[in-house]
Amino acid sequence: MAQKPSIPKGTRDFSPVEVAKRDYIFATIKSVFQTFGFQSIETPSFENLQTLMGKYGEEGDRLIFKILNSGDYLSKADESLLAKKDSQKLTTAISEKALRYDLTVPFARYVVQHQNEIEFPFKRYQIQPVWRADRPQKGRFREFYQCDADVVGSDSLWQEVDFVQLYDTVFTKLGLNGVTIKMNNRKILSGIAEIIDASDKLIDFTVALDKLDKIGKEGVTKEMLEKGISEKAIEKVAPLFDFTGTNQEKLNQLATMLASSAEGTKGVEELRFIIDTIETIGLQSANLTLDVTLARGLNYYTGAIFEVAAPEGVKMGSIGGGGRYDDLTGIFGLKDMSGVGISFGLDRIYLVLEELGLFEEVAQPRPDILFINFGNEEALYATKAIAKLRAEGIKSELYPSDAKMKKQMMYANKRNIPFVVLVGSKEIEEGTYTLKNMSTGEQLVYKLNELLQVVINS
């Protein structure tokens, strides 16, 4: 008995309808990227393993899909490592390449490798799949697309202002009104850790603070104590547990709290510039909010941090995120190259649009016109017309076999094709085409040029 076909967990097949919806999202994001002056690049699906390892932290390294060397990959492996079953050390002996984990590190590698060909500041966008050996769940897959935009070679805060506007423009065009663009700054988090004498525990502090909405004040306090942060230190940051008010009120509270920290004060000033500017310009449909618990990507973010949440009432993780990195290219030898970037979570955006019924206007893939097949002579006559229609950009199709008329018409109905052309011996003799409007049932006879105009103007 043949084995039932299947696909790996965390991957998906996409039907023509699903592809059309995804293409709609891609096209919308790509259009806005280009409007904002970004250029497109592409990088390989897999990179050298050493390019990726050590760039995402210990957990990230575990989630990288390694590619076994071709041929007898065990022949060069150290026998003592094989005997010890030391998978971590063995990996480098049997795997030299890996599927890319994200688009940011490959982009940094690209910038360093092509630095003499690039005009800085370099604004690039990239829409390609990435792979992570994560546990699959709703909105989280092992293969998924990332849609990234980055500016490298500029430390101007106007870039952050531009990215807030870019997020707002994309989600407004998608009809996804009411998203929340959360912002924080790595310098603020460092400043908070500094004033409580816990700079050496910055990661532990921010990871615990990030869980405030999930485990509450008591849970966060307990976790901080377990990580060795003193009760006195926790008392100093207690106001963060009830951090409410407008963005301006939050900025003022932070300015007071971080007055003794030069790093923290700089972070407040940077956020104030971005928030003040956006409040002056205004947004179309998104909300910008200062969220001091936001602590994503601390391994390489050095300034502003972004995260986008779906509209209220939609249960979904972040649908976008990013931030400022002062020296990401430094990992490949190009120092002091500041950059800032954001990413759109395509698959989660798709699920949100689906849940909110925002795909109604997406055109489904189908021909504009179908020629009925009555036999080889008629099909040849139709094919000549189809070539001219296609040259004018009209999606045209010939039914491939001279099946029963009912079957061919059912095909047209199921694919929602608006026009059907019937060609018999009479039409061939007269050089005409009988066009049937599938919505009205009306049938009229036309010459080819007339037929062309009717379809174009419909």
UniProtKB/TrEMBL annotation:
Compartments, as annotated in UniProt: Cytoplasm
Instruction: Supply the name of the protein.
Output: Histidine--tRNA ligase
Q: What class of enzyme is it?
A: ligase
Where in the sequence is the signal peptide annotated? none
Where, in this chain's numbering, is L-histidine bound?
D102, L103, T104, R132, Q146, D150, R296, Y300, Y301
Record's superkingdom? Answer: Bacteria
As recorded in UniProt, its EC number(s) are: 6.1.1.21
- Give the UniProt keywords, A-Z: Aminoacyl-tRNA synthetase, ATP-binding, Cytoplasm, Ligase, Nucleotide-binding, Protein biosynthesis
Against InterPro entries, the record matches this protein to: aa-tRNA-synth_II, aa-tRNA-synth_II/BPL/LPL, Anticodon-bd, Anticodon-bd_dom_sf, His-tRNA-ligase, HisRS-like_core, HisRS/HisZ, HisRS_anticodon
What NCBIfam families does its record include? hisS (TIGR00442)
Q: Which residues form the Aminoacyl-transfer RNA synthetases class-II family profile domain?
A: 1-367
Which terms does the UniProt entry file under GO BP?
histidyl-tRNA aminoacylation
Q: Which family does it belong to?
A: Belongs to the class-II aminoacyl-tRNA synthetase family.
Catalytic reactions of this protein: tRNA(His) + L-histidine + ATP = L-histidyl-tRNA(His) + AMP + diphosphate + H(+)
Q: Which proteins does it associate with, and in what oligomeric form? A: Homodimer.
Q: What PROSITE patterns is this protein classified in?
A: AA_TRNA_LIGASE_II
GO-annotated molecular function: ATP binding; histidine-tRNA ligase activity
Question: For this UniProt entry, what's an example GO CC term?
Answer: cytoplasm
Q: Which Gene3D superfamilies match?
A: Anticodon-binding domain, Bira Bifunctional Protein, Domain 2
